[in-house]
Each structure stands twice: as C-alpha cells, then as structure tokens.
C-alpha cells in the first residue's frame, strides 16, 4: 500500500496501514483523492472472479456525490470511490 500523505510510521518487515487520527477519519480521504485498488476480482460485471490480481485507480467520492451512486455507505467507517459508468471498480461482495 502506498499512501501519499504525511502519516508517521515505523518501518520494519511488516508495516500495518496507518490511518488518520480518529477525529479526522470521517473526512478521510478527501473527495477527489486518488485511490488505488488492488485485488482479485471480476474483469467485467457478472464475470467470475479471476486468479490474477488487477489494479485500478479511482477517485474518492464524498457527500452527495457518494450518496447518488451508493445508498448504503456508512460514512462512519466506509468511503466510496469510482467514476460513474467507467467500468472500473470492485466486484460486489456477493461474487467473492
């Protein structure tokens, strides 16, 4: 994972992901922030999960923009990202 933010960390063989302080977590990431997703997923809607990892770049969405596309996001511990009708994203949880 590569974060482009000034978040302090200690480097060793295993490094847990560093998150912002709890007071700031509801505003993180800021809308428009570039997010990289990596994983094993579908190559297209309705397809089977692949055995080859893929990578995609998405933009973090906040507020009304997020609500327009995703009606079940819990802003206390989730955020949404993507480009409307771009074909980029993650598989629905039901596919995995």
UniProtKB/TrEMBL annotation:
<dbReference type="Pfam" id="PF00089">
    <property type="entry name" value="Trypsin"/>
</dbReference>
<dbReference type="GO" id="GO:0004252">
    <property type="term" value="F:serine-type endopeptidase activity"/>
</dbReference>
<dbReference type="InterPro" id="IPR043504">
    <property type="entry name" value="Peptidase_S1_PA_chymotrypsin"/>
</dbReference>
<dbReference type="GO" id="GO:0006508">
    <property type="term" value="P:proteolysis"/>
</dbReference>
<feature type="domain" description="Peptidase S1">
    <location>
        <begin position="30"/>
        <end position="91"/>
    </location>
</feature>
<protein>
    <recommendedName>
        <fullName>Peptidase S1 domain-containing protein</fullName>
    </recommendedName>
</protein>
<dbReference type="InterPro" id="IPR001254">
    <property type="entry name" value="Trypsin_dom"/>
</dbReference>
<dbReference type="InterPro" id="IPR009003">
    <property type="entry name" value="Peptidase_S1_PA"/>
</dbReference>
